[in-house]
Design brief:
alpha/beta, 5 strands, 6% strand, five-stranded parallel β-sheet, 23 helices, single chain, 466 residues, 58% helix
């Protein structure tokens, strides 16, 4: 295996290519929207917005352009601007199902759930030939009904939406790839010993990381975004919101999801200092492209729940890594994940059923429990329930674990975040003060959770959730 492949992530070249393409076809709506999506991937929100706005300027009557811009404005929390794009479409095509579905989402985001309910009931009753509209309208309807406290009906529509989504892709193949990767990972972790971690730490001086680094993980929907926003409000911390640096530059090179052969402890032990430096350099190059050159914070914080599955790889390359694991009542986690509307991939395909969602929770948290058992690195757990009960108390505890003093502005993180673009799927919560209504949410769906309670029970006991 060639660890030192000459191919590297050239983000400058990618940016130049996007600019060149836009210059060649300044009125090509499809191309401009595609370039906006690429800039989103490159984590350049200003350029992305400019492409979507240019697409609308080039073709104001294009529903594709208007909805792309509306989607972007919604992510920037510019809901009135997003509604203007939607209304411009409805003025020409008042029964367009795709546009009405987006309008319902915006009404929900504004808190107008009764109006969204009326719109979605009518839309679903009329039906659509568009498979995406049929799925999206039902998923959005479930979200609106949940907000209105109509829990049994919300779950019924959510289950129907999931059933429709299963028909749009080869879910069986995705589940097979995921299950094989989990099996390989469990085999590797079972063969690791405390001495393995100690050896890696002793080798650190030969390939020391050039930056102080912390990883914030846990299962999705455990409050990682909330904790990242609180820590990121500290002037000494550069917090990165679900970057793809580690998955793209490390995990997919060492342990790709579709690998037929398992990565072994011996292979990780055999990584030379030069090879470890190579991966470190690729990782930091990808990560730091998001940070202005004039910012030199004391510590880098990489928040991304799913890469918790590769914690052993993190510690192989960064043995001095500070690890923060967010915890939350597993039953609340399952319900919250099941309500997510995420792009399908082998990981997210698990969230199409409560049984697979619970299985995914067990798979990911077993990685953490095994690594915690092995020890030999610096870690802390932070409970979502403790954070929402007292931001300062729990935030101070985690901040001090990172070797920094509590900064008073961290408690007002939501004010700072109004100026930031948030990439996490939970971006809509980033500018809100801490709230407790999500604690114990699972009780609204206790009957549906009954079949997976036995699987979740050991984790409830281990993490002290009665």
């Amino acid at each position: 295996m060639n660890w030192l492949s000459p191919r590297a992530s050239n983000f400058v070249l990618a940016d130049e290519s996007c600019q060149h393409a836009a210059g060649l076809a300044p009125k090509n709506v499809s191309l401009l929207v595609l370039l906006g999506q690429q800039y989103h991937w490159l984590r350049q929100p200003d350029h992305a917005r400019a492409c979507f706005e240019q697409a609308v300027a080039a073709a104001p009557t294009s529903i594709h352009a208007q909805l792309s811009l509306a989607d972007w404005y919604e992510r920037e929390r510019r809901l009135d601007d997003a509604l203007q794009c939607v209304d411009a479409c409805l003025a020409r095509d008042p029964l367009n199902a795709q546009v009405l579905c987006v309008k319902a989402m915006l009404l929900h985001r504004q808190g107008h759930n009764s109006a969204a309910e009326t719109l979605l009931r009518d839309l679903i009753n009329r039906g659509s030939h568009d498979a995406n509209v049929n799925y999206s309208s039902r998923h959005q309807f479930a979200t609106v009904l949940d907000a209105l406290g109509q829990y049994p009906e919300a779950l019924r529509w959510l289950n129907e939406a999931k059933a429709l989504l299963r028909k749009t892709a080869n879910i069986g193949k995705m589940e097979q790839d995921y299950d094989r990767a989990v099996r390989h990972r469990r085999e590797l972790l079972a063969k690791m010993t405390p001495e393995t971690i100690q050896r890696w730490r002793q080798e650190e001086t030969a390939a020391a990381s050039p930056h102080r680094l912390a990883f914030l993980g846990g299962h999705p929907r455990t409050g990682t975004t909330l904790l990242e926003q609180i820590l990121g409000a500290h002037p000494g911390i550069a917090a990165f919101d679900e970057p793809m640096a580690f998955p793209d530059e490390v995990a997919e090179k060492l342990a790709p999801m579709n690998a037929t052969a398992a990565l072994t402890v011996n292979t990780l032990n055999a990584l030379t200092a030069a090879q470890r430096r190579h991966f470190q350099q690729r990782y930091f190059k990808s990560l730091l492209r998001q940070r202005p050159d004039d910012q030199k914070q004391e510590l880098l914080l990489d928040k991304n729940p799913s890469p918790t599955a590769w914690l052993h790889l993190w510690l192989r390359l960064f043995p001095a890594l500070k690890v923060i694991i967010a915890l939350r009542d597993p039953r609340d986690v399952i319900i919250s994940c099941y309500f997510q509307n995420l792009r399908l991939n082998p990981i997210n395909a698990n969230f199409l059923s409560l049984e697979r969602t619970a299985r995914h929770y067990a798979d990911l948290m077993d990685v953490w429990l095994r690594m915690r058992e092995l020890g030999g690195f610096d870690w802390i757990e932070s409970r979502y329930e403790d954070m929402v009960a007292s931001v300062e108390s729990e935030g101070r505890r985690v901040t001090e674990f990172l070797g920094l003093s509590w900064y008073p502005q961290q408690a007002a993180f939501h004010e700072t975040n109004r100026k930031k673009f948030v990439f996490s799927p939970t971006y809509s919560d980033a500018t809100r003060p801490v709230y407790q209504r999500a604690v114990g949410r699972w009780k609204n769906y206790a009957e549906a959770l009954a079949p997976v309670q036995e699987r979740l029970a050991p984790y409830c006991r281990t993490f002290n959730y009665a």
